Structure formats: C-alpha cells, structure tokens
Amino acid sequence: MEGSSRGPLQERASYWFYKHMGLEFSRQEYVRLIMNGRMANVYEDVQKIDGDYIAKWFPGDTEGYIHKIDDYFEYSSNGTGFANLDEGLKFDSRHPLLKETYRWGFEKRSHRENDSWQHLFDLATALNSSSTLSTYEQNIESKIHPEHFAAVLAIRHAVGDWDSYGYNRGKNNYFYYAPQEDKWYLLPWDIDFTLGSGNGTSTNLFAMNSGQFPEVYQFVNYPKYEQMYWDALEEMVNGPWQTSYGTSDPPTAFDRFLDDSADALAAEGFGDGRRNQIKQFVRSRRSYILARIPDEPTEPDRPTRR
Fold first, then answer.
1. Could you tell me the pTM of the whole model?
2. Which end of the chain is more exposed for a tag (fewer CB within 10 A), N or C?
3. 190 has a pLDDT exceeding 60
4. Secondary structure class of 96 (helix, strand, coil)
C-alpha cells in the first residue's frame, strides 16, 4: 500500500480507465501481509506483464518480445552517488542502432536466450523518421496502431502520471512486439503518481519532455495523430471519465467502482483511499479537458485501436 498521498485506490482507478477504454490493463486484488503471525498491512497485488498477461491480451500472437521501459542508474566511481538516465526510444547520431544503446532502458523480458534486437531497431527507426517526410505515416503505421498508441499516452496524461514514458520519465511502461501482426503495443504499468498525487487538474494535456522523448513529441504533434489523441480524450470524458461527486446526480459507473473499492479498504480499517479527492480530481480534470477539445467533429467511422 502506498503512502497517504499515493494510493492505494488511484492506481486501481487508473487501470479501470484503461479497461473501460478497451485497452490492455493489469488485474488487481488486495492482499494482507502477515509477518510473524501479525498483519502488517494491506497491499495491492498487481498482475505483472509476463507470459500469462500476453496470452490474455494477444491470443495467437504470444511468441513476441516483451521489453520493460525503465530508467538507467549509474553510480559514481567511489559509490557515494548516482545519476539516472531517462530517455525515449531515440535513434540519432548519439543513439546508433546498437544493442547497447537500448539494452538497459528497454530490457528484454522474454526470449533472453537470444540477443536479437533487430525488431526494436525497426521500431526506433520508424518512430524517429522525420514527420516532414512523405513516408512518415507509412513508417509509423507499419509498426504501431497509432490510435492505440495515442490512447495509451492520452490516458496517462489525463490521470497526471508524469512518472512514465512519453511524459517526463523513461519508465513505467512496457512495449510488446506481436510478431504475427508485426506491430508494437505500448502497455501501461506502475501508475501511482496519479489522480491527485501527480500533476494537477490543469496540467497541459500535451506536457512532456520533448528532449527525452522526441519520437513521442513528434507523434502527438503531427496533425493526424494529434487528432487521434484528442479523440481518445473526448471518448474518455464522454464515457468512463465521469463522476457525480459534488452534485445531486446519481452515482456513475466510476463512482460505484471506486466506492466498492474504498468500502473494502475501510472495512479492514485502512481508511477510504482518498476516494473523494480522486473524484474531485476526475471532476475538475474532466472540465479542463472538455474546455480544450477542438471544435472540429471527430470522424464518425474512426478505426478501431487494434
């Protein structure tokens, strides 16, 4: 269980939004930690991204590559200090297509028996192709479903979790390469600086470190994919991202979900997990998003995300 400012409900709630947007998410359940016969605390057991997860979400295409996106820590020579490196999937003069460029920030979590990295090189090349090229869209869409990529990023920015890939930190996501489909998927993981414990309700929806993530910055600011990003936000705030908190309206689906989870915690003597603060964040953030969605209508026949 996280401290009072970081959970435990907010990660569970963040995954709920991914679920109700039709995206991949991790199952969760509360567990009691008992030490020497005494209960120490209640924790959230989160389904990790491994073979079972891939079998659930990518049936028939399970033999691909799982890569954990994480920052890289390097200690000083005397061991008294350290620095960490947060980067995106860069490909430039300082980031050549070599295994060691990506080995630590995009660690392989499957097929470790081989040292093949060509699949990741191909993704890095596609994402970093210049948006001024006539082939940019072809390059992007040959390796990812842009609607899916945009939606995963949009939700992370909506909940305000800056501690993630494509935001401010090179971590807390996974990539999965589905070889039969020959497509990459960005998967959410470790979403706890969120819904009031991360960035605030009026944080720019396109806020990100463009120097660390030039490939993501270029993608979300390219008109076609920017529209997909806005489409995902619009779908979310007109769908699952709704609360009746502060009004006389009946509870929404999100309210009922959050109340059930909070009540389970309270029944065990662990408080209510900041339920009302989370609802207030959702209410305020929704108003902020609605005020900024472009006026142009979205395409009625928007393609599916997969």
1. 0.92
2. C
3. yes
4. coil
